[in-house]
Each structure stands twice: as structure tokens, then as C-alpha cells.
Amino acid sequence: MNKIYGFATVSLFIALILITVVYSYTQVDLNLTLSTSSFYLQLQKPLTQLGYFNRPLSGSIFLGLFIGLFIVYGMWLWGIVSQRLHPRLIKIGIITSFLLVLGYAAFSYDLFNYLFDARITTYYGLDPHYFKALDFPFDPLTRFMRWTHRYYPYGPGWLLISLIPSWLGMGKFILTMFLFKGMFALFHAVNLWLLHRLLIHIKVKLPLFWLAVYAFNPLVLIESLVSPHNEVVMLCFTLFAFWLLIKNKVYGGVLAFAVSLSIKYISAVLTPLLIWRQKIDSRFFTVAWYLWIIALIPVILMREVYSWYFIPIIAIAALGGSFIPFMVSLALSGITLIRYYPFLLLGEYSAQSYELQLIAMVVSGVLLVPASLWLWQKKSAG
């Protein structure tokens, strides 16, 4: 029975990962040609037809992937709690998840903004704080970008890090895009390693369960590997700061935390907790989770409920190992990730899509809250 369950879980997960990679190419912008190879164009044509000219089917496929990824997510967690999954299978699943890096950045244009911000420096020799994409109307990348009117909005640390793949890309779009994606995948891998080490060190019960809470979360997979965001990098340096402080390497921990701040300033909310720390344990991370949630409220009110905002929330919830952060993080994962569905279905953000978005978010939350309660009861019983 255990072997059958393990085989079914891994097989379904691998299938969903591969389908997600293929599906992501349905969203390649109509103004972007990734390759002029006749073989590629033959493959891309039906995918473009699906994504842009058969939106009902495209939306249904996304909805199926969304449901499937959350079902298999529950299978991973239940399998660990019930001891139906060998740790080796969990490693196979985590390694398999990195295939998502091969996908197109289908669900957000932020990757292209990161790429162009760095390109302003490495290609044009200018400062993106004072120049924006619209200042380069003849650059071919501006044909398919969004938010071309904004100046560089992040901290200096992120710009310095993003210069590396931009410089290595030598001005070639496809190479640079996958160098950026590879960099995000590397930081994601480090996040998983740091989470595992921290979970073991603070002696959280069932560390593999809590690692899986982050590693197989559909939101984390989509927003870290398919359409990656710099929250992944910010989180990496935040976790590294925790790890160094646990090892009593105070100066190194402060430096790592400063780098995290220099990527996105929101991690500053943890500063008081780090200054007045007595012991870094699961309670420490539970308090950190609440602080981060509080810091996100004004950000969300000023902008939108973007799903990638919650990548650090899910990681810190795993380290806290307590019920409310687990339940809320799981519910938020579904509520925010399902927001892509109306756009993929309708192709625009309108009154109808916002209404559908709200319905989908409510349904997702209604289903995931009891699911998280059930999983928690099984975990506690185990």
C-alpha cells in the first residue's frame, strides 16, 4: 500500500510539473518570438492558439492544474504524516520540481522588468533609478513588457545581484532570461536547504512535513520557479541571517540581514525581533510570522493581493510549526494563486474578471481552510 501511494504521489506530481511547463508556453506574448527555428515554431503555434484564441479551454487547463497541484500537495503532506512516503521519494519530488525552471514566465511580467532594469546598466551603461524602459522605445524588449513607465523600485542589493545574469547574458534575451531563471532556482534550492537545517536545529516535530509545507506548496513552485520574484532572494538572505545568528555568528548574521533589507525593505519588520532576541526557536518564528503579516497589510492596501508576497510567509510559517500560521498560509496560497484564472479565461482585467476572481478566491478559501484543519488533526494525531 505504501509503495502504491508513493508511486501515485510522485507520478502525479511529475505529470503535473511537466504539464505546467508545457502550458506556460501558451502565454508567450504575441510580440515575442523565442526562436525562429521551424521546429520550435511548429510546437509554439498550437500553444499560442490555445492561450490566446481558445481561452475557455486554456482557463480550464489552468484550473485543472491548480486543483491537481493542491491535491498532490495534500498527498505529499498526508503521506509524510501517515509515514506512507519514504524520505527518498520526497527528495525525488523536490528535485523534479526544479523542472519548472524550463517553463516560460507565464503568470507575471516581473521577470522581464528585472531583466530590463539590469539591462539599462549592463547594456546602456545608465542608472535604472533615473531611466525607465519607455526611455528606450527602440529596444525590442519593450514590445512585450508591462510597467514600462516605472523606474527601478527595489533596493540596491537586488540591482547588484541582477547585474550578474544580465552581464553573463551578453545582451541576448533568451540566454539572459534563462540565466535569471537559473539564478532564482539556485536561491530557491538554498532556501530549501536552509529551511531543512533550521527545522532540524530548532527541533520542530516532523521536520520533513514542514519542509514539504514550503517545498511542494503550489504558490511557492509557481512564483519561485515558473514566474520567479525577488522575494525568493530576499527570503534566502533572511533565512541565512537566522542560521548565522543561531550559530552565534552575529556580525555575519547582521550582514546577511542587511543584504535582505537591500533587496526589499519589508524584511525590516523583523529588526526589533532580531535586536531583542533571546532564543531563536519555533516561538521566535511564530512571532516573526505575525510581524510579517502586519507589515504586508499596508502594502496590500496600497497595491493588490499579489500571490508572491506570501512566499516568505509560507517559509516562516513552516519554521513556526504552529496551527494558525499553517492554516492561514495554506488558505492564502490558494486564494491568491487562483487570481490568475479569470485573466487566463477572459484575457483582460474587467468588472467581469474581478467578479469571477472574487468568487474563485472565496471558493478556494472555503475549501482549503477545512483541508488545513483536517491535515493538522492528522499531524497532531500522528
From TrEMBL:
The keyword Transmembrane helix applies. The chain crosses the membrane at residues 57-77, 89-107, 173-194, 206-222, 228-246, 253-276, 282-301, 308-338, 358-376. Keywords: Membrane, Transmembrane, Transmembrane helix. The keyword Transmembrane applies. This is Uncharacterized protein. It comes from Candidatus Gottesmanbacteria bacterium GW2011_GWA1_43_11.
